[in-house]
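Good morning C.,

I know you're traveling, so I'll keep this short. The sequence:
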Amino acid sequence: MDRVAVYPGTFDPITNGHIDIIRRSVPLFDKLIIAVNDNPNPAKPYLFSAEERVEMIKEAVSTSQKIEVESFKGLLVQYAKRRGAKFIIRGLRALSDFEYEFQMYLMNRKLNPELEIIYFMTSQQYSHLSSSIIKEIAKLGGSTINFVPSVVEKKLLKKFGY
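The tokens, ready to paste straight into the viewer:
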């Protein structure tokens, strides 16, 4: 039986912190599905479309045959079940992430007790990164080259007209 994991997120945009978690996760599984959340969120609209986010991730990650990238809508636990995944990968940057992630863990385990959620502590050099902060830096004309893959920086510059 294959060990399939899903690494979900909005990845709007993907950061070097996300890439770090992907690189550390790949050796542990037979397949890692990077699942781009495309559920509408009026409180936090996406800068990039799901298609743009999927393409940026595909260009940014290893060409490993163990990695798949696609978007999904609906509940994560239902998506994971459809894909045959038994593991969910999540990253933790700070204590503030823990409270939210713990709540999601409990709910996801209620919805699908067969799922195991595995948490990766973000590497120290990426603990300050978030997609929201990256977008704000780019919007104000700052350089994001040290925080995101080059394909993402190019897309951010284009999106904000620089």
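Safe travels,
E.
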